[in-house]
């Protein structure tokens, strides 16, 4: 048979649109299972967690389901942790436009998380209480995982390739140089606790207040340079699935990310969470509240996640396939999906609100009102400025560029950036 005849027998190429349509339909059919487990030991009773596995973008439509898991590690009391647990999710959802597609919803989620965190912080501070809380907040929609965090609770991802990835950033002043510089630039002081005799002890803290963290919800008595603006990371798993371990610092002060992940591989989520807490207790003792959530994102054709295969130590195999493996890692930058691979969709950790709320100016043409990008309340144009406008009395101000902020949220933004009201600067 000639080459020409063989070519004629081949099926015609499939249009790209058809391939994309098939992929989308397949993704809907193969939506993963989400299974979870929880375990905790209390020392001070300030840890709280949220588990909502059956949320729906469109009420009554099961195909729009998503899950939310969160840990709130309170300090100086429990009121901030309880308030965030009860209000943060609704504040995040209020910042997402209605009537949009799933893809648009996922794209809007990182910005909505920022707005929701800041709104929750403003509302709690209006109560006049002084406690604070860390937050690690996880949204799972299909294979897409979005994590927002302030403080030092942590979320890690363990994929089927045995690679452990950190989806959060620790906001401890001791470990984060950028946050130390930001706090001091905003008017705070960073130093250790001074004891009798002038010697310094303990971790780096922010003064006034003595907090070891640079970001949290609450902490009214510390200073506005302790900001509620979260680090946000969004990733898409391959159809091999993966395991999330979300835990308070009582776990991470005792176990590294790799040790925690390896210790519970191959176990169901419920047993895995208990084992992680047990190992942390064995390693360090019960010195702090210790809370752990284990969430498995499982392909629909598998009852549980299989244990990750051990890496082979065969030298010949390494020589033969080492270069191929290196090429594969380079291709990951091109967002190609592989078994156990993770595609990074979004990551941003800036503490500057103007960099986190996008560039859209939300307004109602019929009413002439502008909607605040943080509190989601409609206001007349004269009641606020855009997020990108400069300080009052500044000729460099651009009052209508970017999202609108009401006067109250604008004051919050200025305070977080270290700008003090009542001190206009004159420029020549």
From TrEMBL:
Keywords for this protein: Hydrolase, Magnesium, Manganese, Metal-binding, Protein phosphatase
Pfam families associated with the record: PP2C
Cofactor: Mg(2+); Mn(2+)
Superkingdom in the source lineage: Eukaryota
Catalytic activity from the UniProt record: O-phospho-L-seryl-[protein] + H2O = L-seryl-[protein] + phosphate; O-phospho-L-threonyl-[protein] + H2O = L-threonyl-[protein] + phosphate
Entry EC number(s): 3.1.3.16
Domain PPM-type phosphatase: 25-297
An MF annotation (GO) of this entry: protein serine/threonine phosphatase activity
Record-given protein name: protein-serine/threonine phosphatase
């Amino acid at each position: 048979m000639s080459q020409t005849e063989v070519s004629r027998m081949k099926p015609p190429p499939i249009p790209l649109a058809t391939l994309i349509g098939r992929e989308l339909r397949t993704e809907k059919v193969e939506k993963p299972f989400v299974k979870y487990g929880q375990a905790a030991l209390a020392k001070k009773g300030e840890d709280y967690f949220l588990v909502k596995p059956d949320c729906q973008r469109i009420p009554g439509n099961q195909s729009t389901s998503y899950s939310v898991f969160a840990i709130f590690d309170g300090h100086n009391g429990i009121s901030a942790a309880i308030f965030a647990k009860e209000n943060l999710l609704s504040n995040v959802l209020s910042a997402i436009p209605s009537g949009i597609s799933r893809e648009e919803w996922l794209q809007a989620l990182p910005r909505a998380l920022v707005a929701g965190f800041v709104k929750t912080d403003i509302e709690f501070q209006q109560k006049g209480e002084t406690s604070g809380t860390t937050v690690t907040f996880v949204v799972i929609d299909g294979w897409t995982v979005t994590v927002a965090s302030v403080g030092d609770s942590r979320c890690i991802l363990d994929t089927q390739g045995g690679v452990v990835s950190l989806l959060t950033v620790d906001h401890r002043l001791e470990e984060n140089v950028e946050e130390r510089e930001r706090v001091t630039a905003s008017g705070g002081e960073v130093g250790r606790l001074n004891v009798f005799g002038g010697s310094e002890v303990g971790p780096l803290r922010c003064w006034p207040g003595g907090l070891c963290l640079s970001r949290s919800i609450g902490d009214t008595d510390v200073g506005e340079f302790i900001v509620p603006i979260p680090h946000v990371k969004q990733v898409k798993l391959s159809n091999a699935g993966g395991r999330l371990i979300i835990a308070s610092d009582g776990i991470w002060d005792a176990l590294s990310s790799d040790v925690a992940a390896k210790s519970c591989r191959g176990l169901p989520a419920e047993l895995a969470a208990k084992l992680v807490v047990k190992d942390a207790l064995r390693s360090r003792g019960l010195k702090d509240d210790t809370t752990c959530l284990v969430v498995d994102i499982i392909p629909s054709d598998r009852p549980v996640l299989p244990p990750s295969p051990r890496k082979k130590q065969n030298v010949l195999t390494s020589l033969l396939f080492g270069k191929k493996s290196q090429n594969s890692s380079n291709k990951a930058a091109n967002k190609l999906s592989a078994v156990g691979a993770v595609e990074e969709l979004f990551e941003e950790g800036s503490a500057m609100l103007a960099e986190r709320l996008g560039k859209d100016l939300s307004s109602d043409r019929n009413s002439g009102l502008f909607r605040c990008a943080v509190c989601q309340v409609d206001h007349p144009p004269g009641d606020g400025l855009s997020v990108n406008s400069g300080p009052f009395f500044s000729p460099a101000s651009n009052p209508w560029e970017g999202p609108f902020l009401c006067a109250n949220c604008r004051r919050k933004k200025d305070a977080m950036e270290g700008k003090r009201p009542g001190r206009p600067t004159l420029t020549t």
